[in-house]
Write a structure and sequence with these properties.
- Helix 4 crosses helix 5.
- The chain is globular.
- The protein is built from 12 helices and 14 strands.
- It is of the alpha/beta class and 347 residues long.
- It has a 10-stranded mixed beta sheet, with helices on one face.
- The protein has 2 domains: 59 residues, DNA polymerase, domain 1, CATH 1.10.150.530; 282 residues, Alpha-Beta Barrel (TIM Barrel), CATH 3.20.20.
- The longest helix is centred in the middle third of the chain and has 15 residues.
Length: 347
């Protein structure tokens, strides 16, 4: 039975019209689901009884179940969810002054193999459906409703490589962004990639006003090859070419995510090289420096506060727009993949 939560309004309209219903019927059902939060066909009282029975026969509106919930002292909420086939995924909400952004997962496990990331400790089993990604958002909204809050921003940068599951991620974005649905503004939605050039170019042609973040984490191939295997297939030259194409077609700025690892990529020389990379290629980009959440199964150590500050200042002096990301969830398993790995080991 197919989960109707995976249908954008356009797809739902086409589906219902093919079943002999009017276009308005799709708007009704879509509004019940997202406008009123109703996930029971029987409660959609302005939909004809015969069509409700048809929907119950052919579709479901099922959400993932919560296996574990962690709430940090700073208000960060981390959920481990079980999907219908028993697969497990994580999502996290980090409270900011401007709202409640969530990081959603796009795959069960990850095969990109980034050396510092807990997500890669459990390899990819499959991509998530659009319904399963929507389910993450709706479950988090249910949890946040206890505090009078709701999801305001989406970052597709949890477990998995979004461009390795491109079509489902795009359908999820359409559902979340739809004004008749969850109505999350396009500029409040970010997709993060470890660097798949074809996906970057394709995303730039979508005509969306959503954001792109690139997990760069190194200023050159020598360092990037050591910590990000994807760089062996797609070296920096090819990656930068794809980013240039994205900028020219989308007109949108790109964010370079840069996790600082002690003694690996956090030197002033690295900062200078990163600044040259951005400046010499005339990239419309800004750098988000990320203090590393250490993972006990891995050897990498977080950079000292002085190293982070020095790196940040070096970029600013070179005219690069850069910030240091605020840290969240220090007293829970907040890093991508940590909670799932911990749970699986306990089992």
């Amino acid at each position: 039975m197919e989960n109707l939560l995976g249908y954008s309004l356009e797809r739902m309209t086409d589906c219902f019209v093919a079943r002999g219903q009017s276009k308005f019927r799709a708007k009704q059902v879509f509004g019940w689901i997202y406008g009123k939060g109703v996930l029971d066909f029987d409660k959609m009282t302005d939909v004809s009884l015969s069509f409700r029975e048809e929907l119950k026969r052919d579709f479901c509106l099922s959400l993932p179940s919560i296996i574990a919930k962690q709430v940090a002292s700073d208000g960060t909420v981390k959920l481990l969810l079980r999907l219908e086939d028993g697969a497990k995924v994580e999502e996290v909400m980090m409270p900011y002054d401007y709202g409640c952004p969530i990081c959603v997962s796009s795959e069960v496990g990850c095969s990109m193999g980034c050396a510092f990331c807990a997500s890669g400790l459990l390899k990819k089993e499959r991509g998530l459906t659009s319904a399963e990604m929507v389910g993450q958002l709706l479950v988090m909204n249910q949890v946040l409703s206890e505090y009078g809050l709701r999801v305001t921003h989406i970052n597709v940068m949890g477990t998995g490589e979004p461009f390795d599951n491109y079509d489902n991620v795009m359908e999820f974005i359409r559902i979340a962004n739809c004004q008749a649905g969850l109505a999350i503004g396009a500029r409040h939605i970010t997709v993060s990639t470890c660097g798949l050039p074809e996906g970057i170019r394709r995303y730039g042609k979508e005509g969306l006003q959503t954001n792109l973040a690139l997990s760069l984490h190194a200023p050159n191939d020598k360092i990037r090859n050591k910590i990000m295997p994807v760089s062996l297939k797609y070296p920096m030259k090819e990656l930068i070419a794809a980013i240039k194409d994205y900028l020219s077609t989308s007109g949108r700025r790109v964010t370079f995510e840069y996790i600082l690892l002690s003694g690996v990529n956090d030197t002033l020389e690295c900062a200078d090289e990163l600044a040259r990379l951005i400046r010499d290629n005339d990239l419309f980009a800004y750098v988000n420096l990320i203090p590393y959440n250490e993972v006990k199964e891995m050897k990498w150590k977080r950079s000292s506060k002085s190293s982070v500050s020095a790196f940040h200042n070096a970029l600013l002096k070179k005219g690069i727009n850069a910030t240091v990301r605020k840290e969240f969830g220090g007293d829970i398993d907040a890093a991508c993949g940590q909670l799932r790995v911990k749970y699986e080991k306990q089992q």
